[in-house]
Specification:
TIM Barrel
Length: 331
C-alpha cells in the first residue's frame, strides 16, 4: 500500500521561474490522528524549489483552548500558531506572517472581546477572521464545510458582529459554494470599508447533482463572480482546486497529475477571476495540506505559473506576492 507521501513523490517537476517571489496566501497547520501537517511538513513543502518568502495561516479549528468561555476557545488557535512559529531558522520562509483566525459573528456585539483577544495573542500578526458560509441542503455536499445555517451572512446578529471588523482594521474571508456568492456580494455592499476575501475561487460545485450540469454551474458561477467583482472591497483567492468537491478526480490517479494538466483543467476558472478582479485583487494560495491530497506542493505552484506565462512581470508579482502582503498588511 503506497502512503500519501510516497504517492505525491511519484510526480516530480523542474521548478518554473524559481526566483519569482511568493506569499502563500492560504495554508493550515494541524495534527490529527494519522494526519500531521505542522512546521516540519510545511517547511519541506515551502523549500521544495519555489521562492516562498512568507505565508498566511488560515483557521482550521486546530489548537483551540480546551477550557474557558466557549466563545474565546478559538483564540487558542492564534496562540498555538505563535508558539509553533516561535523558532524561525535563519533564511527560512516567514511562516504565518499573517494569521487569520475564527471568531463567531453570531455573537453580535459580543464578538468584540474575542477579536481583541486574538489581536493581543497575535503579536501584530493577527490580520482577520474567517467564518465558513458554505451550506447546501443536499447531504452529498456536507464534507465538513457546512455553515450552521442557510444564508448565514444575511443574519442580523451576524451583521451586528461583522460591523466590528472595520473598527479593528481586520479582514474577513469565507468559503462559500458558488450558489451562495451573492450572499457575499450583499455583505460587501453593506460593509464597503471591510476587506472581504472569497476563498477557493468561490467553489464551483462539481459533485452530486452538479456533476451532470457542469456548464450550468459554470454559467452561474461566472455570473456571481462577475457581480462580486463590482465590489471594490472584494478579493478572491485563486486555489482550492485540489478539493474533490469541485468534481475533479485528482486524488484517484495512479500518480498525481502534472502542472500542465492542472493548469489546462482549471484555466477557465482562474483566468476568469483574474479578468474580472484584476491582479491587484487576486492572490494565489496553496490550500495545503488540503490540496496536498491531490498533488505535490511544487506542482501546484508550477501550474499557477503556467497559467500566468502570458502576463507582465508586474501582474505576476501582484498575483504571487504583492496582493497578499498588501491585503494582510504584512511588513
Amino acid at each position: 500500500m503506497v502512503t500519501q507521501e510516497e504517492w505525491l513523490k511519484l510526480t516530480q517537476e523542474e521548478i518554473i521561474d524559481p526566483d519569482l517571489p511568493i506569499c502563500d496566501a492560504h495554508h493550515h497547520l494541524w495534527e490529527h490522528p494519522g494526519n500531521r501537517y505542522l512546521i516540519e511538513e510545511l517547511l519541506e513543502d515551502l523549500e521544495s524549489g519555489h521562492n516562498i518568502l512568507n505565508t498566511v495561516y488560515v483557521d482550521c479549528r486546530s489548537g483551540y483552548r480546551s477550557s474557558g468561555p466557549e466563545e474565546l476557545r478559538p483564540v487558542g488557535e492564534t496562540e498555538n500558531v505563535i508558539k509553533l512559529t516561535a523558532n524561525r531558522k535563519p533564511g527560512a520562509p516567514e511562516v504565518a506572517a499573517g494569521i487569520v483566525g475564527f471568531a463567531n459573528l453570531m455573537l453580535g456585539s459580543g464578538v468584540a472581546p474575542v477579536l481583541e483577544a486574538h489581536i493581543e495573542s497575535g503579536r501584530g500578526r493577527f490580520k482577520g477572521i474567517r467564518q465558513m458560509g458554505a451550506w447546501e441542503s443536499d447531504p452529498v455536499f456536507a464534507q465538513g464545510y457546512n455553515a450552521p445555517k442557510k444564508e448565514l451572512f444575511l443574519d442580523a446578529k451576524v451583521r451586528e458582529g461583522f460591523a466590528y471588523l472595520s473598527r479593528y482594521n481586520l479582514t474577513f474571508e469565507t468559503m462559500v459554494f458558488h450558489t451562495q456568492i451573492m450572499d457575499v456580494v450583499d455583505l460587501a455592499r453593506q460593509f464597503p470599508d471591510t476587506t472581504i476575501i472569497l476563498d477557493h475561487i468561490g467553489v464551483p460545485l462539481g459533485i452530486g447533482p452538479c456533476a451532470v450540469k457542469r456548464q450550468e454551474v459554470m454559467q452561474d458561477w461566472k455570473r456571481n463572480i462577475a457581480e462580486l467583482s463590482f465590489c471594490p472591497n472584494a478579493y478572491v483567492k485563486l486555489g482550492g482546486i485540489g478539493m474533490n468537491i469541485l468534481g475533479y478526480d485528482w486524488d484517484e490517479r495512479a500518480k498525481p497529475a502534472g502542472s500542465a494538466e492542472i493548469a489546462e483543467a482549471t484555466k477557465p476558472y482562474i483566468l476568469y477571476c483574474i479578468e474580472k478582479f484584476g491582479t491587484k485583487r487576486c492572490m494565489f494560495e496553496s490550500n495545503f495540506p488540503v490540496d496536498g491530497e491531490a498533488f505535490p506542493y511544487h506542482v501546484i505552484w508550477n501550474a499557477f505559473k503556467r497559467l500566468t506565462m502570458d502576463i507582465s512581470k508586474e501582474e505576476k508579482n501582484d498575483l504571487f506576492y504583492n496582493t497578499a502582503v498588501k491585503t494582510y498588511h504584512i511588513e
